[in-house]
Amino acid sequence: MKKSKLTISKDYKIAKIDNRIYGSFIEHLGRAVYGGIYEPGHPEADENGFRKDVISLIKNIDVPVVRYPGGNFVSGYNWEDGVGPVENRPRRLELAWSTTEPNTFGTNEFMKWCKEANTAPMMAVNLGTRGPDDARNLLEYCNIEKGSYYSDLRRSHGVEKPHNIKLWCLGNEMDGDWQMGHKTAVEYGRIANETAKIMKYMDPSVELVLCGSSNSYMKTFGDYEKTALEMSYDKVDYISLHQYFNNSDNDSKNFLAKSMELEEYIKTVICICDFIKGKRHTKHEINLSVDEWNVWYHSHGAKFDRWSEAPHILEDVYNFEDALLVGLILIAMLRHSDRVKVACLAQLVNVIAPIMTENGGKAWAQTIYWPYMHASKYGRGYALNGVLETTKHDTKGFSDVTDIDSIAVWNDEGEELTVFAVNRDFEEDNILSVNLKDFDGYKPVEQIVLEGFDIKAENTVNNGSVKPLSKPLDNVYESVKEIKLSPLSWNVIRFKK
Length: 497
Description:
The structure is a single chain. Helix 3 packs parallel to helix 5 (185-202), helix 8 (259-280) packs parallel to helix 9 and helix 9 runs parallel beside helix 10. The protein folds into 2 domains: 2-10 and 384-496, Immunoglobulin-like, CATH 2.60.40.1180; 18-378, Glycosidases (TIM Barrel). It is α/β, with parallel strands linked by helices. The protein has an 8-stranded parallel beta barrel with strand order 3-4-7-8-9-10-11-12, surrounded by 6 helices. A 7-stranded antiparallel β-sheet has the order 2-15-19-20-25-22-23, covered by helices on one side. Helices cover 24% and strands 25% of the residues. The chain contains 10 helices and 25 strands. The protein is globular. It has helices at residues 52-61, 107-117, 132-143, 149-156, 185-202, 223-232, 252-255, 259-280, 320-335, 369-378; strands at residues 2-8, 13-16, 23-25, 65-68, 92-94, 99-101, 120-125, 167-170, 207-210, 238-245, 287-295, 340-345, 355-357, 363-365, 382-384, 387-389, 392-393, 401-402, 404-411, 416-423, 430-436, 443-450, 469-472, 482-485, 489-496. A hairpin with a 4-residue loop joins strand 5 and strand 6.
C-alpha cells in the first residue's frame, strides 16, 4: 500500500477561482441543439421547445457560462438567419459539418434558454466569412436598448430588453486550414484588433477572447499566439486554448498522464502572453480561456448522410477512464486558476458531451458528467497550492507522473474545504495523509468517490451504473486525516467548519 501526504494552508492561495472555469459549449453541430437542448414536441419539452429533463441535468452541474453558436459552425454563420419570425428563416447548407441548418433555433432562443438553464452566454462572432461590420451589428442587436437600427430590429422580434452579453469570442480556430475563412496570424491579428476596437467603441464593458492555436500540435503554435497578440494585445482580454485528448492506442496508463500535456500548453501560452506584456511595457494582463477541451476519439469515422438535419455525429460514449482524465484536467486547470479564467467543456449535450439524449426519449448522464459536476459544485472559492508528496511513475509519453494528483479549494464564505484527488495507480490503494495547517475546527464530512469500475465501463440510456457514492469519514479524526484512495479513483474529500 502506497502513502502520500498533502499539506494545505490558507496562505497557499493560487487565486480566487473564476466560476466560468466550469463553463461548457453548445454548437450547431449534430444533435447538440436539435434533439439535445431543443426538441419541440418531446414529452419533456416546455412551451419554448426546451427539454426540461436536459435542463435539470445541466442545473445539477451549475454551468456558469455556455459558448455559442460555434465552433467551426460560426465561421460560416449569418446570425441574421436565426432571428425574426421562424417561418421566414432560411434553411442553409452548413459547410463546416456538411449538414442542413434549419435556423429554427437562433440568438433569441439561445438567450431565452440560458435563462431557463441558469447560465450566461459566451457569444462568438464570425470572423471567417464575415468580419468587423457583422460583429458590430450583432453586438448592437444584442446589447443596445433601443433607438438604433439593430436594437429596434430586436425589439420588433419581440425582445424588448437588451441581452447585455458581456463575453465574446473573436472567431474560432482561425489558425486551422479546415476553418472557413482561415487566416494567417497577421491576417487574423489585424481583423481581430479592428473587430475588438469597434466592439469596445460600442460597448466598453464587453470582454473579448482572441483565438489562439487550435491545439498545441499545430505547426504554427506559439508563433500564431505571439503574432496575433502583438497586433491586438491592448484590445483583448483573453486568448483561447483548445485541446482534445484520446486513447486511440489503448494505452490507459499513458492516457491518464495527458493532463500534464495540458499543463505544459497552459504554461507556454502564459509565457507568450507575458512576453508580449513585457515587450509593450503595459500593465494590461491577458488571461486564458480554455474554451474547448474534452476527451474525443470514440466517434471518429462515424457515418451520416451528407446534408441531413441534426444527424448523430460526434456522439462519443464515454467510459470510466475518460471520467478519470476529465477529473485530472479539471485539477490541472484549477492549479492554474490565477490565469485560466474561462474554460468550456466541449460540448454539453450529445456531441462529445456529459449529457446524452434519445430523440423523443430519455436523457442521461455519461461517466464524465460526475467529476465535472463535483468540481463545479464544490470547487468554488480559492484554489490552494498544497504541498503534495507522492510516488511517481513513467509512461510511454511522460516522465515523473505523480501517482496521486490533487488540488484543494477553500470556500471561505461557506467555511468548507474540498480536496479533489485522483489515484492513477492501477493496482494499489494509496493512503493520503491530509495535513491542515490552519483550518482549526474543520471536520471531515464525506468522501465522494468514483471507483471500482472496469476501466472501459460505460453508461447507457438503460444502465447508469458508473456513478459516485458517498463514504462517511467517521474514522478520520481531526489530528490525523488519513484517507484511503482506491486504485483508479476520483475522490472528492470534503471538510466543513
